[in-house]
Amino acid sequence: MQLTTLLVPTYTHMLKTLSSWLKKAQAQLPEAEAQALLSAQLAPDMYPLSTQVRFACVQAREAICRLRGEPFPAAINELLNEGRQAVKQPGSLADAYARIDETVALLEGLAADALDMDADKPIAHELPNGMIFDLTAEQYARDWTLGQFYFHVMTAYSILRNQGINLGKADYVAHMLPYLRPESIPKG
Questions:
Q1: What CATH number does domain 3-184 carry, 3.40.50.2300, 1.20.120.450, 1.10.150.670, 3.40.50.2000?
Q2: What percent of the chain has pLDDT over 70?
Q3: Is the pTM of this model over 0.90?
C-alpha cells in the first residue's frame, strides 16, 4: 500500500468525523455550553479539546510536509501556537471547524501519489525538546504520525464523552457505513 492511499483517506475520514462530533455536541447543548467544551480537559496536565482539534490537524499537515521533504508552512506553526495557547484562548467552534475544513481541503487537493516515495527514505523527526528520531518514511507513517493523529482524535472523543456528549461507536466508525452490506444490518 502506498502512503498516500493509507494516510490521506485516514486523515480525511477522521477529521470529518471529528467535525461531526463537534456538531453533535453543539446540537445537544446550549450555545454557551457548547463553546465552553473547547476548554474541557480530561486531566489538569492535558491540553483542552480545542488543542486536540488543532493538533490532529497539525499531524496531518506535518506528515504531508515531512513525507514530501518540504519545509513547514507558517500555517503549521500557527496551529501549534494556537494549540499551545488554548488553555487561555480556546477560540470558538467556528475556529475549530475552520481548522478542520482547511486541513481536509489541503488533503483533498493532493495528487493521488503526493506522498508516495521510497518507503525507506530517511526522515529525521526532531521534537521541540531536541530529541531526534531517525525513521524511514514507512516507519514515520506507521509509528509516529498515525499514532499521534489518533491520540489527538481519540482524546477529543474522550473529552466530549466525559462532558456528557452522546457519542458512541457508530459515531466513531461512521466512515465505514458505505462498506456495510445492507442485508447484514440487524433487524429491530
A1: 1.20.120.450
A2: 100
A3: yes
